[in-house]
Amino acid sequence: MSSDPGPAALMPTAIRQDGPRHLAITWADGHESRYEVRTLRLACGCASCVDEWSGEERLDPDAVPQDVHPVKIEPVGRYAIQIDWSDGHTTGIYPFRRLREIG
After folding, report:
1. What's the total number of domains in the chain?
2. Does residue 80 form part of some domain?
3. I want to staple 28 with a disulfide (CB 3.0 to 4.6 A). Which of 11, 12, 56, 98 is the partner?
4. DSSP 62
């Protein structure tokens, strides 16, 4: 039996702030993922944070404030969210499949 959630399970039914340092996503299959927000910021996979060709991380963790937090979360189609961060970073897209994997 595979533990990989099917496509329907990868749709969030709720995204909410869970205290000052966490973000919670409830998925269509009832599973809830809880993310420490700074860890989520450090997991950004955009071209500014990760080299597109080599996959090497470009983001210096020391450059991300300890109190970084989402200031805006927007849907991207039916497959991802985009998070605008308090440190000014706005280009990261977090696909639902990736969020489910890291959550």
Report:
1. 1
2. yes
3. 11
4. G
